[in-house]
Structure formats: C-alpha cells, structure tokens
Write a structure and sequence with these properties.
Layout (H helix, E strand, L loop, with lengths): L2 E4 L1 H13 L5 E8 L3 E2 L2 E4 L1 E4 L8 H17 L2 E9 L5 H5 L4 H8 L4 E5 L13 E4 L13 E2 L1 E2 L2 H13 L9 H6 L8 H12 L19
Parallel strand pairs: 1-4, 1-10, 6-7
Antiparallel strand pairs: 2-5, 2-6, 3-4, 7-8, 8-9
C-alpha cells in the first residue's frame, strides 16, 4: 500500500475542521502536486474542508468539486484524496460514506481515502490520528483503516496543531457549508493559512497564550 505523507498545512486544516465540529461528521478533499507520487509516497500538500451538515448532498458536492478543481489547476495541484471524520467511532459508518471518494479515485487511481480516528484525537497532539487507504478491497470498498499517515516535520506540526486548537483557531476555518451560507467567506482559507504558518514558524511564541477553555472532541 502506498505511503501517504501530509504537509503541516494540510494536517492542521484537517484537524481544525474536525475540532470545530466535534458533534458532526466532516469531510473534505486533499490536494497534491501534479507529480503527486514521489518514490512511492503520495504527498498531500493542502486540504479543502467541505461539509459538516450534509455530507451526501450531491449537487453541492458537484459545485464544490468544480470550484476546487479549477483552484487546484491554477496552483499546479490535483485532487488526490478525500478525508472524513465521522461523528461515530465505528469505522463502518465511514465505509458507507458518500461516493465522492470513489469519484476522486476514478479520476486519479492513485488517490487516498483518509479517516480520522476519534479516540486518538486530543487537545494536545501527541500522535497522528489520521489513517490512509490507497486501495479498494475485493468488494470495491476502501480497505480500512489503512496505514497511519506520515507527517512532514512531525514534532513541529503536532506542537503547532496543539497551539492552534488551544487558541481556538478552528473558529477561523471556513468550509464549503460556511461559504454557501455566506459567499463572502473564503473557502480557500488564505487568512487561516497565514495563522497556521505563523504557528509553525514560531511554535514557542504562543505557548503561554493557550486558552483554558476545552473542547469536547470524542463522540459516541
């Protein structure tokens, strides 16, 4: 199975999306460079948060994918994967998820399906809770849970993600549901990217400013 490696930016966006909506399932698409695979590894450079209300709403998904595909092309990227964080622990709920991941797989057979394991997600990021599958089983479903995702600059990325969570930076994240409700909101999350980059470049500057307010992350 192909190894999947996330950039710090892509990882932080996925985690912040899941933390922003702890009582709902969330999903999104993953972007990779045009030369997506390097030495047998699929490099995920960016993530685009999609929905947190109706993950299987086909018309809205089509609109979103068209806009994302155009954005990716302009930035020399391709849609190379799909991620989903279920509101439930049972992976079978994810296995029955909407068909967007299969459509992405049809367009790019080397794509990945990434799931977030709720029991591994915490305010203090000490381990990677993302698992990636890059192949379908005999029944045509994703072979889950797959292999744990690798991170570029893992320790720095986990530390930065912890800071961002505790500062409640997830409130700044815009997914397509937010954009459809208010079109002026930027689904590319350009401003959030600057905040993430700041946390990655200066991980110790924010430590003492961490919020005392917690977030309930696990759902049954």
């Amino acid at each position: 199975m192909t190894e999947v490696k996330f950039s710090p930016l892509a990882y932080c966006k996925v985690i912040l999306h899941a933390v922003k909506y702890p009582h709902a399932s969330v999903n999104g698409v993953l972007l990779a460079p045009e030369n997506a695979k390097r030495d047998g590894t699929l490099i995920i450079e960016d993530a685009v948060p999609l929905f947190h209300m109706a993950l299987t709403l086909a018309p809205m998904a089509e609109v979103a994918l068209q806009q994302i595909d155009s954005y990716a092309s302009k930035n020399k990227l391709i849609i190379a994967g799909y991620y989903e964080a279920s509101e439930f622990f049972d992976e079978s709920d994810v296995r029955k998820a909407n068909r967007m991941s299969y459509k992405i797989h049809e367009n790019f057979p080397g794509s990945c399906f990434v799931t977030l394991r709720n029991e591994l997600l915490s305010l203090e990021q000490r381990q990677v809770p993302l698992y990636a599958s890059t192949k379908l089983d005999d029944s045509g479903c994703w072979s889950l849970p797959g292999k744990k995702v690798k991170l570029e600059k893992e320790s720095v990325t986990l530390h930065a993600a912890s800071i961002l969570i505790n500062l409640q930076t997830y409130d700044e994240l815009v997914d397509f549901d937010n954009h459809l409700d208010c079109p002026s909101k930027d689904w590319t999350n350009a401003d959030l990217e600057l905040t993430i980059q700041e946390a990655l470049n200066n991980p110790d500057d924010e430590d003492e400013e961490d919020s005392d307010e917690g977030v309930e992350l696990a759902n049954n």
